[in-house]
Give the backbone structure.
Amino acid sequence: MKKLLRNFKKRKHIVFFDLEGTQHSQEMIAIGAVLCTIDKYGKISKMRVPFKVFVKPKNRVGKFVVNLTGITDAMLEKEGVSFPDAMKAFKKYCGVAWKKCMFVSFGNHDIRILNQSIAYNINAPKDLCHQIHANYWDFGGYITNFVKDENGCMMSLVHYCELFNVDIHTPAHDPEADAINLAKLYDKFITDKDLVLQEYKKVLANNKKLPEPVLAVIKKLAEGDSVSPSDFEDAIKAEIE
């Protein structure tokens, strides 16, 4: 947790955000975000009313994304704004916290969507985009160091939320709901250290990259067994004999 808190040194706000993108060009079609105030321990002390805006891409949404998100080309034509205007609205929502907050998403796919939107918009507000790049943190990449599925892979946001007993906001694949779920997952991860410890033991015990003698000892410890130096030596002997 100390490493996590170092990421938020001298920061009072985190903006949890989620982006939806087109199927093929990966341009932004929606932004969802929630601005949170954190205390000195990194715990959320206040959550602002969330933000959401639809964004007009240069290319079509794509059937797969339409089925996944319910966002259609017709909807974006009617309710969407340009990418520059969406980013300006995002900055306005963050207010004075914009320049000093940390921008947090689940997985780095959101940064790819941001970059693709910059590439497709000659008038992209690169200064606003740079602010996100310079103060970005991938919580999905962090949590997967401590909690993984049975195959040693990163779980989905929903599955992590279920594991940590987060009251999940719906609908699925709605950027506003996903931003709120991410904020709540982060807060649970910060506070439920016993569950993180339990899950981290499983990750260590399933780490196939560790030398077999070390792995054998860790598996015993993870199962609650006592291990002595002689047990470790026996495991080493078994490996070399």
The longest strand covers residues 28-38.
